[in-house]
Design a protein that fits this description.
Blueprint: H1 3-43, H2 60-82, H3 86-105, H4 111-130
Helix pairs in contact: 1-2, 1-3, 1-4, 2-3, 3-4
Length: about 150
């Protein structure tokens, strides 16, 4: 392997590692914010705006529990992403997708916050899908060391 090829491979690996860390940090933030949103929904239903004519009307305490659980799972998965675990990559994409769905369904109760969380989760999905591939195109599941 030539020096140029090694440098290119190293740059690609660093890019992939950077995207994985980016996804882990964003998923950790999204998880913590979802935990706080869940606590708000469980403790104080009057913090949220209620809309009468929304198709997906649910009890805000129920939404609080959903966001609390999704947030806790997101935090655990983000810790796995920091370790470079393949299960965490798959789980991260899955949990970020569920966070997008939950925030879409609860959009009228906290609209600006829901849009921010959807954007965070979208970036997590993008970073986990793009980063972490080796030369063959397969995902590299080996732990990454700096």
């Amino acid at each position: 392997m030539t020096t140029h090829t090694r440098h290119t491979t190293s740059a690609k690996q660093q890019w992939a590692q950077g995207l994985t860390v980016f996804a882990a940090v964003l998923l950790m933030l999204a998880g913590l914010l979802d935990i706080f949103r869940g606590i708000m929904g469980i403790a104080e239903d009057d913090v949220f705006v209620t809309t009468r004519n929304y198709v997906f009307q649910f009890d805000l305490t129920g939404w609080g529990w959903i966001h609390l659980i999704l947030g806790a799972i997101a935090v655990v998965v983000s810790m796995g992403l920091f370790q470079g675990a393949m299960w965490a990559r798959v789980a991260g994409i899955t949990i970020a997708g569920l966070i997008v769905i939950a925030n879409f369904l609860s959009l009228p109760y906290y609209p600006v916050w829901s849009v921010v969380m959807i954007a965070f989760s979208g970036f997590v999905i993008w970073a986990l899908c793009v980063g972490g591939r080796d030369e063959s195109g397969a995902f590299d599941s080996a732990p990454r060391n700096g």
